[in-house]
Amino acid sequence: MMKSLKWLSVAASIGMIFVLIGGALVTKTESGAGCGKSWPLCNGQFIPSEITFELVIELSHRLVSGGVGIIVVVLSYLAWKKIGHIREVKFLSVLSVFFLVLQGLIGAAAVKWGQSDFVLALHFGISLISFAAVLLLTLLIFEIDKKFDAKALLIKKKHRIEIYLLTIYTLCVVYTGALVRHAGADLVCKDWPFCTNETPFAFLTAGRLDLWIQMGHRLAAGILFIWTILFTIKMYKHYHESRVMKGGAIILGALIVLQVFFGAMIIATMLNLAIALLHALVISCYFGLLSYFILLASRSAAQERQAATIAAPSTEPVPIK
C-alpha cells in the first residue's frame, strides 16, 4: 500500500507543477478567455465545434487541473487514513485540497464574471501554497521508510523566525510578479535592472501605474535575492553538519540566482514564452523548498516545547502521607 501511496504522491507533485506552469501559460498567451464565459464547459459545449489556439491552451489547462485535482483529493484521503498519526499529515491534507479548490473557484470566477488585475494576481500564490502542501505530503510519505529523513535536525529559534518571514515575503514578491503579468506591464521597461539605465529613476515622475508595478516588482525581487543569498550563507555556516539543511540552502541560493537570471532574460528576449515559463517553474521550486524548511522549523519548535515541558519542575503539591 505504501508503495502505491508513494507513486500517487509523486504523480500529484508533478501534476501540480503542470497546473502551475499551465496557469502561467494561460496568462502569458492571454488565453483566459479561450473558452468564452463558459465554465466548466468551453463556449457552452462539452466538445467545442470551433477550435482556436487560445481555446486549446485554456481547455488543456482545465483538463489537467481537473485530473490533478482528483489525484490530490485521493492522495489527501489515503494519507489521512494511512499515515494520519504523523503530526503534519492531516493539516497538509486539508491545506492541499482547500487551496486547490480555492484556486479553481478563483479561475472559474474570472471566466464567468471577470476580476481585476489585483485579484487575479492572487491566483498564482494560491496555486503555490497548494503545490507546497502536496510536495510536503510527498516528503512525509517518503520519510516513513527513512528514504528522506531530517527529524533529528534542530533549528535555532532566530533562524526559524527568519524562515517564516522569508516565506511570507516570497509570497509578496510572487504576488507582485503575477501582478506584472496580469497588468500587462511585462515590457513597459526595455532595460534591466532599471527601467531606463540612462535615467534610472525617471519612472518616479512618469505618473504611470504600469511602470510602478514593474519597478516595484524588480525592487522586491532584488531584496529577495540579497536576503536569500545571506540566508544561504548563514544556513551553510550554522548547519554545515546537516546534509539536508546544507544541501537545501545551496539549492535555495542557486534557485534565486536562476530566478533573477530568467527575470532579466524575459526583458532581453522580449518576453520569450519558454523563458517566462522557466521563470514560473523556478520560483515554484524555490517556494517548495522554503516550505520544507518551514516543516523542519516547526518540528524543531515542537521539540523545544517538549524538552521545556520535561525540564520544567512540577508545581503540583506533594501529598503528605
Any overview of this molecule?
The structure is a single chain. With about 325 residues, the protein is mainly alpha-helical. The protein folds into 2 domains: about 1-145, no CATH class; about 150-305. The protein contains 9 helices and no strands. It has helices spanning about 1-30, 55-85, 90-115, 115-120, 120-145, 155-180, 210-240, 245-270, 275-310. The radius of gyration is 22 Å and the shape is globular. The termini are far apart. The model has no long low-confidence stretch (mean pLDDT about 85).
In short:
The chain has 321 residues and is an all-alpha fold. The protein is built from 9 helices and no strands. The protein folds into 2 domains: 147 residues, no CATH class; 157 residues.
Mass-distribution shape:
globular
What order do the SSEs take from the amino end to the carboxyl end, as H and E? HHHHHHHHH
Fraction of residues in H or I helices: over 70%
Helical stretch tally: 9
Task: Please tell me the total number of domains.
Answer: 2
How would you describe this structure in keywords?
321 residues, mainly alpha, 2 domains, 9 helices, 0% strand
Give me the secondary-structure topology.
Elements: H1 2-28, H2 53-83, H3 89-113, H4 117-120, H5 122-143, H6 157-182, H7 209-238, H8 243-268, H9 273-311
